[in-house]
Specification:
Elements (H helix, E strand, L loop, with lengths): L1 H21 L2 H17 L1 H15 L5 H34 L5 E6 L12 H8 L14 E12 L8 E9 L3 H4 L4 E5 L8 E5 H6 L8 E4 L2 E10 L7 E5 H7 L8 E5 L6 H9 L6 E5 H45 L1 H9 L4 H31 L3 E5 L6 E5 L4 H28 L2 H7 L1
Parallel strand pairs: 3-8, 5-7
Antiparallel strand pairs: 1-9, 1-10, 2-3, 2-9, 4-7, 5-8, 6-7, 11-12
Length: 438
């Protein structure tokens, strides 16, 4: 019988956790409202209030053991949210580089710009495709671009290590197809000259990137004439005239990609179909939002997997801490609980009351952990190798409300697991046995 009871508890626990993982914040709010109504309107709920009030009032007398639960869960939530904020910040930085009214065109099955190649003839036909926006002169707003890698000294490296930076050769339309990009210091480069502008994210990552400095790229000296910001993945790049970049790196007249300003977001369908149905072209077009979102998927999934794995390992320790604390708390209140049951209190109010106590401690721990993660890591600058690109990507960690809610859900789940078994033991222990143990 005891085995069946424990097996039933495990099944209940598994079912609750599965439902809890999928539950949005408003679902949890609805559950809390229903619980509050039950405690206000029903006799068993009133009994739960009485038992819970006594238990919660004694928390200050058990400050040390209560702190074990709070600190343990705060640590789990803080680490989890911080690691997930890294994934969120990385994905957000990539997504911000795209939009629904711009498109990027790559060679056929190319997964990224580096592996793509477009000829001058390809670019001419892309400019003539339907759906391409045009400027006041009637010219297609298309930036045909070349992407190459450059090794630069990493800022702050004690051993003088170098890292890979992405250099993008752009056309005059580059700032039009990327309206977020703007010069914040200096000026833009002059076409035909070996002048370069650098993103503020690249300035944070690499040494020597300042106005007036000279860089050696492709065995040629380049002068930094400006610093730009865009608030997205482009912040980590260096931009120069595409023709000069091609000459320096012996790329001929071809380009890696073409970024296109569309007439509107709905124009992507006609634009992409026109290119894919053109027998003279072997290219694929997608919105820049779709492209950059896809570029971030693998890295984001890896970072989330790391965060959840580390959080789960720490959560196991927090659960055992909660179990130990709550079993001790229940044992210290055995006479009180036995007396309540002897005068007519049922088992369910006792179970719910003990779990409310654990849940309260878990909630406090979750709020503390989430608050610390937000204060310390929200906006924290980091960099990593950009999946599918040739350079390091600078990004800011983003502690979003959704991540904070995810952390709170983990905290409450730990509290539920840590309180369930002690609560059931308190409610099912025979009154005479409880009085003897006390």
């Amino acid at each position: 019988m005891k085995f069946l009871k424990n097996f039933g508890l495990v099944l209940l626990l598994a079912a609750v956790l599965v439902a809890w993982v999928a539950m949005p914040w408003y679902g949890a709010l609805a559950v809390a409202v229903l619980l509050a109504l039950w405690m206000l309107l029903f006799r068993s709920g009133a009994q739960t209030r009485s038992v819970a009030a006594v238990g919660i009032s004694t928390l200050t007398q058990r400050m040390g053991s209560s702190a074990v639960i709070v600190v343990g869960i705060a640590g789990v939530v803080g680490v989890l949210v911080a690691l997930l904020a890294m994934a969120e910040g990385y994905a957000r930085t990539q997504r911000n580089a795209g939009s629904l009214d711009t498109a990027i065109v790559l060679r056929g099955a190319s997964a990224n710009e580096v592996s793509s190649a477009l000829s001058r003839e390809d670019i001419v036909q892309i400019e003539q495709a339907p759906g391409v926006a045009r400027n006041a002169k009637g010219e297609a707003i298309v930036s045909a671009e070349t992407v190459v890698a450059a090794n630069l000294p990493v800022r702050g490296s004690p051993t003088g290590d170098s890292g890979s930076a992405q250099v993008r050769g752009i056309s005059e339309a580059a700032f039009t197809v990327r309206p977020n990009a703007r010069i914040i210091e200096g000026r833009t480069f002059q076409p035909g000259l070996r002048e370069i502008i650098v993103g503020k994210g690249a300035v944070r990552q690499f040494d020597g990137l300042k106005l007036g400095a000279t860089l050696k790229l492709g065995n040629q000296p380049w002068t930094i004439v400006g610093i730009f910001a865009s608030g997205d993945a482009m912040d980590s790049e260096l931009w120069a005239d595409a023709n000069v970049v091609n000459d320096t790196y012996k790329r001929g007249s071809g380009r890696n990609s073409a970024t296109v300003k569309l007439e509107n977001a709905a124009a992507i369908k006609a634009f992409s179909e026109s290119l894919e149905n053109n027998p003279a072209l072997k290219v694929k077009a997608s919105t820049t939002l779709e492209f950059f979102t896809k570029q971030s998927e693998k890295m984001t999934q890896m970072l989330r997997a790391i965060g959840i794995t580390v959080g789960a390992i720490m959560a196991v320790g927090a659960v055992f801490g909660a179990l130990n604390t709550m079993f001790a708390a229940v044992a210290s209140r055995a006479r009180e609980i036995a007396t309540l049951r002897a005068i007519g209190f049922r088992g369910l109010p006792v179970v719910v009351a003990v779990m409310l106590e654990t849940t309260l401690l878990a909630l406090i721990g979750g709020l503390v952990g989430g608050a610390l993660a937000w204060l310390i890591f929200n906006g924290f600058e980091a960099s990593t190798m950009s999946a599918g690109a040739v350079g390091k990507l600078s990004f800011s960690l983003a502690v979003s409300p959704q991540l904070l809610w995810e952390g709170i859900k983990w905290a409450l789940a730990i509290g539920f697991i840590g309180g369930l078994f002690p609560a059931v033991r308190a409610a099912s222990l025979p009154v005479t046995t409880a009085l003897r143990e006390a």
